[in-house]
Amino acid sequence: MKAKLIAALFLFGAGVACNSPEKKQEETTAEPEMETSAIEEKDSTVFGESFDIGQAKQPEMVLANLQPQDSLNATIRGTVKEVCKAKGCWMTIDLGNEESMRVTFKDYGFFVPKDIAGKEVIFTGQVKYTETDVETLRHYAKDEGQTEEEVLAITEPEQSYNFVATGVKLVD
């Protein structure tokens, strides 16, 4: 009986020793760093999930046949027009002809730097042609730094292209 108790205590002690606080600390800090920080790759920086840039297309090629309420998965290369000044939680991509497409990030899971306006990016995810409600448009206007008057002047929903990205790659 005494031998069984000693063996049980030995196994318990070995199990505790294998899960030392130092090891747990390394395990808990390794994963969040990968999820929240940018990953350096050759000549670019990736935010969110890594992806293959080989299939990247210009926005007009992807959006040409997209009908209202349709959606499709795509990888697009474009120039950043604006970025959320509060957190970097969205960006707009220049479509030409004074049009733009808003890009948000899946599950609010990552952000991009706030100073990338004018830079080229490649991003992957899902694009939709949808209606954005007034409340959301006002939120975006506040993020852009518009005045209270300009924000309150938004009274109609807007039909536009919206992209939910799972990954964004800054191109150097």
Automatic annotation (TrEMBL):
Entry keyword Signal: yes
Keywords: Signal
Signal peptide start-end: 1-19
Region span, Disordered: 21-41
Pfam families reported for this sequence: DUF4920
Keyword Signal among UniProt keywords: yes
Highest taxon above the source species: Bacteria
Protein name, per record: DUF4920 domain-containing protein
Organism: Marivirga lumbricoides
